[in-house]
Design goal:
CATH superfamily of the largest domain: NAD(P)-binding Rossmann-like Domain
Order of helices and strands: EHEHEHEHHHEHEHEEEEHEH
Bound molecules: guanine
Strand content: 15-25%
CATH topology of the largest domain: Rossmann fold
Structural class: alpha/beta
């Protein structure tokens, strides 16, 4: 193996310890950061995700509320809950777990969240803030990827970054964050005719497709940094990413494993965003 591992568990532990310290400081000033997690329906994966989010909050000393609703909840009822949470001073972050049941318009629900509490960074105002370099919340998964690059002291200026995947949650915001750090950015997707020709030019590759073996060793320039956002199951049912880890680790300079790579960073950045939201609320109340 030539690549160095970027350990998402170790980095998360370090960042969450900092969140806990800062949270304690905020509490000493009379404000407890609070996150509301809203789950509608009984999607099995979502149940696990929200439990992990709430547990991470508790471990770092944040206040968290988990609101679970039946799949029969109407869109109007959910919008009413979001409005109530927007007006709740004990809540600084609102996360509505996706996917929502088909009869609810997820876009409408996300847009109902106050941008000041949009710790997922999914609101159009948050996306616009990222695009224009204004203050706002960054989506947690690509934000976590940026922290991983920072942790190895990687300077993106003048580097070529290739993002595979163009989702609103990962691919597109990832590209904007890399661009903001002065990388030359290429976004590849299912209609890219020759993916390998693109990835072979890359100093940094972010794989965020949701399909196994999207990136194999022959597609990677020696020494490149490879970040794997994928969360898939292999034939044996084991968790794996989008990258052929066994092959690529022999070529890359740095690589993130799955599990224990980008995954834990997503929840970590949710805590970071919630803490920041509370800090902003405190500054505003002191200015008022
Ligand atoms: N579903 C899968 N990942 C996420 C996430 O990061 N946030 C929300 N709200 N829903 C998700």
């Amino acid at each position: 193996m030539t690549a160095q591992l970027i350990d998402g568990n170790a980095l998360s532990k370090q960042l969450r310890a900092q969140v806990a310290t800062d949270t304690a400081q905020l509490k000493a000033q009379g404000l407890t950061p609070g996150l509301a997690v809203v789950l509608v329906g009984d999607n099995q994966a979502s149940q696990v995700y929200v439990r992990n989010k709430v547990k991470a909050c508790e471990d770092a000393g944040l206040h968290s509320v988990l609101e679970k609703y039946d799949a029969t909840m109407t869109e109007a009822q959910l919008l009413a809950r979001v409005a109530a949470l927007n007006n709740d001073d004990s809540i600084h972050g609102i996360l509505v777990q996706l996917p929502l049941p088909a009869h609810i318009d997820a876009h409408k629900v996300i847009e109902a969240i106050s941008p000041a509490k949009d710790v997922d960074g999914f609101h159009i105002a948050s996306a616009g803030a990222l695009m224009t370099g204004m203050p706002g919340f960054w989506p947690c998964t690509p934000y976590g990827c940026m922290k991983m690059l920072e942790s190895i002291g990687y300077n993106l200026k003048g580097k070529h970054a290739v993002v595979i995947g163009r989702s609103n949650i990962v691919g597109k915001p990832m590209a904007l964050m890399l661009l903001q750090q002065n990388a030359t950015v290429t976004i590849c997707h299912s209609a890219t005719p020759d993916l390998k020709a693109m990835t072979l030019q890359a100093d940094v590759i972010v794989a965020a497709v949701g399909k196994r073996n999207v990136l194999t060793a022959d597609m990677v320039k020696p020494g490149a940094v490879v970040l794997d956002v994928g969360m898939n199951r292999n034939d044996e049912g084991k968790l794996c990413g989008d990258v052929d880890f066994e092959g690529v680790k022999e070529v890359a300079g740095h690589i993130t494993p799955v599990p224990g790579g980008v995954g834990p960073m997503t929840i970590t950045m949710l805590l970071v965003n919630t803490l920041e939201s509370a800090q902003r609320a405190l500054s505003e109340s002191q200015r008022a």
